[in-house]
């Protein structure tokens, strides 16, 4: 816009109704499909250049003030190509940064918390047994089960408790770890879930200096966990140590989580199990965020390259002018 002629810039000043700084291009100009995308940028740019000393200031800053006519024409041709590329990059960048599907860190964190605890809460808060387990009963066999509608042991914490808690019947030690200070026995009571979780989570590793979860990490851990799901009958699948019947924790049953399935296919049930679906959603949103971040970096780098190219074009024009003007002045003086 800075190197365009006065006639071009004047085109933006009035619309056909006489209003200043038209927002839509006149119908008697080039085909609208060519100009429509750019008009929203051209019109404000022309208006800005007309105000105060903006035009002079930007020419001085870009070192293109007083360019020779031929140098200005060459620079304008180069800058037109550069500006077209930069505009396309800018629009792509705008799409990346203003995407309606962009997930915030807070959204992903909430999904992970809901998957792990059954509701959004900080890891240091007490586990709410009523949120971690959604079955209506209070026995281990019923709470360590996921029905076809996805209700039951619907959180990661509930699943871990079902796989690791001792019972008053047969397990004298946790099947997941050994400690002299073992937690109290658990036979499925929701109000006893916090005591179990408090004892078990100590064996999950250090809680500090951990890396932020990535999409691939979540998906990998989810895949590894679900790969251990055993289809034991056409209507049942079990995660954990399954022996015969149910997951009551007795020696005749197992320390596990039972999934009600259909025709030997656990997928429909898993697709309704909250901890699975929420982790999948978190992984997907993180992947989208990672892709947007990569695209934003790529587009920003490309825009910087176009800016450098524009500065180089202006510098070349200024250098040409600096070289030619003294020759023209000398020739004029001797003519």
TrEMBL record:
Origin: domain of life: Eukaryota
Domain Trypanosome variant surface glycoprotein B-type N-terminal as annotated: residue spans: 1-304
UniProt-annotated location(s): Cell membrane
Cellular component, GO, one term: plasma membrane
First-listed, main subcellular location of the protein, grouped into a coarse class: membrane
Coiled coil: 279-306
Membrane topology according to the record: Lipid-anchor; GPI-anchor
UniProt KW keywords: Cell membrane, Coiled coil, Glycoprotein, GPI-anchor, Lipoprotein, Membrane, Signal
Stored InterPro entries: Trypano_VSG_B_N_dom
Segments traversing the membrane: none
Functional note: VSG forms a coat on the surface of the parasite. The trypanosome evades the immune response of the host by expressing a series of antigenically distinct VSGs from an estimated 1000 VSG genes.
Protein name in UniProt: Variant surface glycoprotein 1125.3004
């Amino acid at each position: 816009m800075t190197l365009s002629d006065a006639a071009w810039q004047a085109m933006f000043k009035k619309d056909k109704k006489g209003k200043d700084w038209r927002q839509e291009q006149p119908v008697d100009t080039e085909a609208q499909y060519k100009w429509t995308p750019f008009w929203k940028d051209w019109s404000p740019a022309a208006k800005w250049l007309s105000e105060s000393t903006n035009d002079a200031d930007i020419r001085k800053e870009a070192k293109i003030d007083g360019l020779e006519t031929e140098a200005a024409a060459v620079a304008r041709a180069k800058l037109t190509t550069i500006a077209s590329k930069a505009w396309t990059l800018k629009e792509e960048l705008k799409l990346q940064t203003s995407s309606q599907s962009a997930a915030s860190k807070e959204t992903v964190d909430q999904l992970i918390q809901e998957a792990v605890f059954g509701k959004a809460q900080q890891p240091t808060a007490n586990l709410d047994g009523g949120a971690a387990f959604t079955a209506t009963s209070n026995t281990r066999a019923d709470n360590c089960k996921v029905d076809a509608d996805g209700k039951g042991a619907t959180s990661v914490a509930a699943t871990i408790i079902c796989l690791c808690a001792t019972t008053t019947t047969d397990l004298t030690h946790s099947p997941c770890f050994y400690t002299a200070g073992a937690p109290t026995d658990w036979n499925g009571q929701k109000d006893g879930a916090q005591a179990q979780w408090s004892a078990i989570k100590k064996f999950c590793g250090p809680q500090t200096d951990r890396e932020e979860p990535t999409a691939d990490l979540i998906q990998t851990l989810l895949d590894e966990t679900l790969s251990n799901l055993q289809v034991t009958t056409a209507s049942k699948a079990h995660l954990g140590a399954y022996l015969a019947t149910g997951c009551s924790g007795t020696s005749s049953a197992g320390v596990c989580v039972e999934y009600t399935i259909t025709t030997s296919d656990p997928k429909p049930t898993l697709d309704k199990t909250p901890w699975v679906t929420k982790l999948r959603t978190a992984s997907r949103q993180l992947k989208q965020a990672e892709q947007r971040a990569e695209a934003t970096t790529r587009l920003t780098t490309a825009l910087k390259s176009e800016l450098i190219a524009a500065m180089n074009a202006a510098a070349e024009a200024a250098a040409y002018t600096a070289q030619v003007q003294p020759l023209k002045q000398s020739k004029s003086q001797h003519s």
